[in-house]
Design brief:
The protein contains 8 helices and 9 strands. It is of the alpha/beta class. The chain has one domain: NAD(P)-binding Rossmann-like Domain (Rossmann fold). The chain has a 7-stranded parallel beta sheet with strand order 3-2-1-4-5-6-9, sandwiched between helices. Strand 2, helix 2 and strand 3 form a beta-alpha-beta unit. 44% of the residues are buried. Its EC number is 1.1.1.104, 1.1.1.30.
C-alpha cells in the first residue's frame, strides 16, 4: 500500500527541480498525478512513469488554469510549485521585475487555488501545499528583495486559506526550503560574473556543509500530501539545514 493510494494530485513546475522530484515521489506512493509546466521538452521526461500524466500549462494565465481545473472532477491535493528567483536589492528591482516575480510566485497560486478550491469544498475534503521559502518573513536574505517579499506573501496566502476553510475540511500548508541543489540554482550560479565565487558563497552559508536535495524536499511534500499530516494546517514547514539559525 502506498502512502498516497487513491489520491489525485495536481502540481505546477513539474519539469525539473523540486516539482519533478515531488511528481515522481507522489506517483511512487500510489497517487494519480497531473504534472504541469510550461517546458514541454523537460516535461516529456516524465512521460511513461506510471501514475503521471503531463500537460503544458502556464499557471500565470487564468484561462489555462481554469481549463486545467475543468478537466478534473476531483482533486485531493494541489501543489503550487511555480516560482522565479530575482537577484538584487530593491534598488536593482525594476517594476517589470517586481510584476513578473509577483505574477509567477503569488498570482499563480491565487489562480490555481481559486480554481481548484470549489471542487475540494464540494467534497468537504482538500489539501493545498504552497512552495514558499526561508527567504521570506522567516529570514532576511541579501539580494533577494522581491523574491523574499513574494514568498512572505505565499506564507500569508497559505495561512489565510487555512483559516478560511478549516471547518470545510480543507488543509493548506507551505514548504519553506533553504538552498536546494536544483537546475534552477545551478543556472543562476553559472549566470554570475564569477560562477566559482558564487558557488563558494552559496556553500559558505550551508551550516550542514551541503545543500538540500530536491528529493529531500519531495519527501516532506509526500508527508504533507498524505493522511499522516491530517492534523497539520496553516504551517510553514521549514527544511533549511539550520540556515535560519
Amino acid at each position: 500500500m502506498g502512502r498516497l493510494d487513491g489520491k489525485v494530485i495536481v502540481l505546477s513546475a513539474a519539469a525539473q527541480g523540486i516539482g519533478r522530484a515531488a511528481a515522481i515521489a507522489f506517483a511512487k506512493e500510489g497517487a494519480q498525478v497531473t504534472a504541469t509546466d510550461i517546458n514541454r521538452e523537460k516535461l516529456n521526461e516524465l512521460d511513461g512513469i506510471p501514475g503521471i500524466k503531463t500537460k503544458v500549462v502556464d499557471v500565470t494565465k487564468k484561462d489555462q488554469v481554469e481549463a486545467l481545473a475543468e478537466e478534473h472532477d476531483r482533486v485531493d491535493v494541489l501543489f503550487n510549485v511555480a516560482g522565479f528567483v530575482h537577484h538584487g536589492s530593491i534598488l536593482d528591482c525594476e517594476e517589470a521585475d517586481w510584476d513578473f516575480t509577483m505574477s509567477v510566485n503569488v498570482r499563480s497560486m491565487y489562480l490555481m487555488s481559486k480554481a481548484f478550491l470549489p471542487k475540494m469544498l464540494a467534497k468537504r475534503s482538500g489539501n493545498i501545499i504552497n512552495m514558499a521559502s526561508v527567504a521570506s518573513s522567516i529570514k532576511g536574505v541579501v539580494n533577494r528583495c522581491v523574491y523574499s517579499t513574494s514568498k512572505a506573501a505565499v506564507i500569508g496566502l497559505t495561512k489565510s486559506i487555512a483559516a478560511d476553510f478549516i471547518e470545510q475540511g480543507i488543509r493548506c500548508n507551505c514548504v519553506c526550503p533553504g538552498t536546494v541543489d536544483t537546475p534552477s540554482l545551478r543556472g543562476r550560479i553559472q549566470a554570475q560574473p564569477d560562477p566559482d565565487k558564487a558557488y563558494t558563497d552559496f556553500m559558505a552559508r550551508q551550516k550542514t556543509g551541503r545543500m538540500c536535495t530536491a528529493e529531500e524536499v519531495a519527501y516532506l511534500c509526500v508527508y504533507l500530501a498524505s493522511d499522516e499530516s491530517a492534523y497539520v494546517t496553516g504551517t510553514e514547514q521549514i527544511i533549511d539545514g539550520g540556515w535560519r539559525l
